[in-house]
Structures are given as structure tokens and as C-alpha cells.
Amino acid sequence: MLREVGLDALLLSPGSDLTYLSAYRMFTSERLTCLVLQQDGAATLVVPGLEAARAREAAPDLALATWEETDDSVDSVVRIVGRGRSLAVADQMWAAHLLALQSGLAPAQTVPASTVTRSLRERKDAGEVDALRDAAAGADRAYAAFEGVAFAGRAEHEVASDIARLLRAEGHREVHFTIVGSGPNGASPHHESGDRRIQSGDAVVLDFGGTTGAYCSDITRTVRVRGEPDPELARVHDTVRRAQERALGAARSGVAASAVDRAAREVIEEAGYGRYFIHRLGHGIGLDGHEHPYLVAGNDQPLAEGMAFSIEPGIYLPGRFGVRLEDIAVIGASGKAEPLNRADHALRVVD
Ligand code: ZN
Ligand code: ZN
Ligand code: ZN
Q1: C-alpha 309 to ligand 1 mean position (Å)
Q2: Rounded to an integer, what distance in angstroms lies between the CA atom of residue 208 and that of residue 165?
Q3: DSSP for residue 104
Q4: Per-residue pLDDT tens digits for 240-285
Q5: Most buried residue among 247, 290, 313, 342 by CB atoms closer than 10 A?
Q6: Which class in CATH covers the domain with range 2-121?
Q7: pLDDT, mean over the chain
Q8: pLDDT of residue 214
Q9: CB-based contact 264:242 (threshold 8 Å)
Q10: What is the Å distance from ligand 3's center to 284 Cα?
Q11: What distance in angstroms lies between residue 221's CA and the mean position of ligand 1's atoms?
Q12: Which tens digits make up the pLDDT trace of 46-80?
């Protein structure tokens, strides 16, 4: 890819691109860690000396260049890459590192790493699909285990901790988010679970995910607490469910990402709720919870085998409630989208 786009080297700080290419998972810090991948295939991991053992174990096939606490870490990169080259750098590299590298390397050209990595990462291979399937199955089992979770009278954040506990019990090693949006809070798609006490009759949006291995899960179900519901809840939920089914049927190889968004939006518009579907239909998923491809108006890139993404239509009635339904799907060898989540779509009644 570097040769194809005419770049001399790719510089990756800790993040999903680095994990994708090297299997090395590392947190970002003030100490420079940088994978230097050159056009001829030479790959060197520049790491602080104290991380050398860990890096060698994770990525034994890479050359290692270590720098000690009093060394200038940028020099280690300059010695490998040289000045005045054309570079791709990690999209999420800290500005402090990027500015230091730019002044040391004086590159002729700098582009984001996604120029090179996007097309590699957005089509998942069989091992990656298995990892996504495993994460999705864990999230499904956590949802099935809600049987014992009480809602009415408890604060949203208490239910959120129960969800996190169930995710871990069902194989998640990391829990990234647990959104519990009850009653009017559900009308804010990314509501942060708070102190509101859940009331009988409430609709509650539950959106949660994390990782079982390195790949992410992300699922949303909307449940109803026993009691008198909003009279429009059943109709709104049914509309969202039909929109999701329509989109899943529309998603196939060769179809534009934007067309899948449109398919779901049409169902919601026909039901009269068009202006209450206030976000794109979905996002790609893999090592990152949100990545390419995005299912959104304006993205006319064709879907292709191996692409994995969420399908998550929603309707948000301000001051009242929200409903969202989200599954992860992957385009299979047949060209059709296969859902990885199998948890029931019905409006579940909880206590
Ligand atoms: Zn979201
Ligand atoms: Zn979600
Ligand atoms: Zn999502």
C-alpha cells in the first residue's frame, strides 16, 4: 500500500492501526512509542527501554529500537527514516509527538495513516469476523441474563453497573460503555447513565459494548418497565424494528453505504417520525468501536465482503422517550449481510 500511494514510511503510535499490523497493544503516553514501517517492508518498533520486554513478546518478528530515559526519542525515528521523506502518521497520534517528529524529520509530505490502513482494515478476514462474532455473542448472552436485573426504583447508573458485571461474566475482558437512558433521558442518544430513578412504565434504552479479545461488541435494545407505558411506545418500537429489518435486507455487496441508511430512513419517514431519527444509521466496527465504513447519507462507497458495521436506527421524542435497536452485521461470502447479534428484538418487559 505504501508503494501504491507513493509514501516512504508509515509511523504508528499506540492505537488500533498499530495493533492491527503488529499485535502490540500499548497505551498512549508522553514516552514515544512508534512503529516505523518502510516501503521496502522493513519494520522497526521504537519503544522506551522499560517497555522492551513487553514489546518483544507481543511482536517478536519486528526489529526493536529502544531509547533510554535521557535519550531524545525522536532521534531514534530520524535514524531509521531520514529527513525530507513522504510519511503517513497515525490519525490519533498526540500533537506533542507529531510536532516533535515533524521538527526532527522535516517530512516532504505528511498524510494520515488511514490513507494506507483504511482499505486494509475495513474488510475483515475470517479470523476477525470470528472475533467480532465472539464479542457479539457475549453481548447477546449478557442481554439474555437481564432476567434477574431490577429496573423500577433504581438509578440508571446502578443498572449500568449490573450490565457491566453481566458483560464480564459472559466473557468480556473490557467494558467500554453502558448507556442506560430511561424515560426522557432515552431521547438523548448518547445519554450518560446518571442518577435518575427508573420509573414504572418507562422505556429504557440500553446500549453497551466492550471487547472479549481485541475486537468490539456494540448492541442496543430498548426495554419497557412494567406499568403504564407511553401510548405511542409500541408503535415507535415497531417502526424502529421494521426500519432495522429493512436496512439489514438492503445491506449487501455492491450496495452504497448511503443506500442502507436511506432504506431505514424511509420506513421511519413513512411512519411520520423522520425528523426524530437524528443520527446516521451505523458505523463500521472492528478493533475500534467506531471505524469505517459509515452508513450515512453522502457515503456512496459500495459495501463489500468482510465489511462489518452496526445497523442502529432510532426515534427520539424529546421530553418523552427514545427507542433504538442496534445489531452488528457483516457482509458474508454470499454478498448478503449476516447479523452477528441474535438477541431478541421484541419490546421486552422488565421489572
Ligand atoms: Zn453511538
Ligand atoms: Zn451502540
Ligand atoms: Zn453503535
Answers
A1: 12
A2: 12
A3: H
A4: 999 999 999 999 999 999 999 999 999 999 999 999 999 999 999 9
A5: 313
A6: alpha beta
A7: 97
A8: 93
A9: no
A10: 8
A11: 13
A12: 999 999 999 999 999 999 999 999 999 999 999 99
- Options 2.60.40.10, 3.90.230.10, 1.20.1050.40, 3.10.180.10; CATH of 126-350: 3.90.230.10
Q: How far is the CA of 281 from the centre of ligand 3 (A)?
A: 9
Evaluate whether 248 touches 174 at the Cβ level (below 8 Å): no
Question: Rounded distance, CA 281 to CA 303, Å?
Answer: 14
Measured in Å, residue 322 CA sits from the centre of ligand 3 at: 15
Distance in Å, CA 326 to ligand 2 centroid:
6
Angle between helical axes of 126-144 and 156-169 (0-180°, round to 10): 130
CA of 307 to the centre of ligand 3 (A): 15
Question: Structural domain boundaries of the chain?
Answer: 2-121, 126-350
Confidence band for 133, pLDDT divided at 50, 70 and 90: very high
What per-residue confidence (pLDDT) applies to 340? 98
Whether the per-residue pLDDT at 188 is higher than 90: the answer is: yes
- Ligand 3 (ion): which residues have CB within 5 A? 218, 310
Grid cell at residue 198? 427508573
* Dist. CA 328 → ligand 3 center (Å): 8
> Residue 148: its pLDDT value, please?
84
Report whether pLDDT(147) > 90.
no
Q: Is the dihedral of CA 45, 214, 166, 143 positive or negative?
A: positive
